[in-house]
Amino acid sequence: MDTTNTKRFFDNPIIRTFLGLHNFLVLASSTILTGILSYFLHHYHYRNTHLVYQEVIAVVTLFLYLFATFLPAFKFYRGYMLPLNLLLSYFWLTSLIFSSQDYAGNRCLYNSPPFVNRCRLKHTIQAFWIIGFSYLFLNAILEALMWAGSRTNRLLHGGDIEKDRPLTSGNAVPVSNGHGTTTTV
Fold first, then answer.
1. Where do the TM regions start and end (predicted)?
2. Rounded to whole angstroms, how far apart are CA atoms 37 and 173?
3. Which residue from 147, 144, 149, 142 is spatially nearest to 25, judged by alpha carbons?
4. How buried is 130 (Cβ within 10 angstroms: 0-12 exposed, 13-18 middle, 19+ buried)?
5. Is the pLDDT reported for residue 137 higher than 80?
6. How would you write 87-143 as a 3-class SS string?
7. Is the pTM of this model over 0.90?
8. Beta strands per DSSP E along 5-115
9. Does 2 score more than 80 pLDDT?
10. How far apart are CA 96 and CA 98, in angstroms?
């Protein structure tokens, strides 16, 4: 099995750029959702569990993805946010289901908050849950492949190539320090 193509594919700046772009789109979706849901919570005193849950998930995602947007730019990054992406994609799917239960069809007027004729905003909430979930799911796939590729390379090459390279030019000479131990210089 040729692992050089795997390494090149996942160390490719284009893949890292796509991952950063996906992270930015998740950040943008969570920012828009936080704004709309905060508007509903501030202006209407109706607070059901669906609305509060969606607000919490949007705010937590906003906070985490302020940092995650820039992680793919660093060379040491190898898909370490995979568990977080899997967890957040589950939470975003749950929020998408909640918003679909509340706002789909003719239920928009009667749910979260009830008798507030802001159906366009409520459908916007649904749309951004779909967008954010889609990119979180794509991130989970890309990060799983990136993590697996870096792990495969590490196992086949006996460690991390960058960290395990020799510090000298290959002309190491054993030197005794006089205490019975030998070091290489």
1. 20-40, 52-74, 80-98, 127-148
2. 67
3. 142
4. middle
5. yes
6. HHHHHHHHHHHHHHHHHCCCCHHHCCCCCCCCHHHHHHHHHHHHHHHHHHHHHHHHH
7. no
8. none
9. no
10. 5
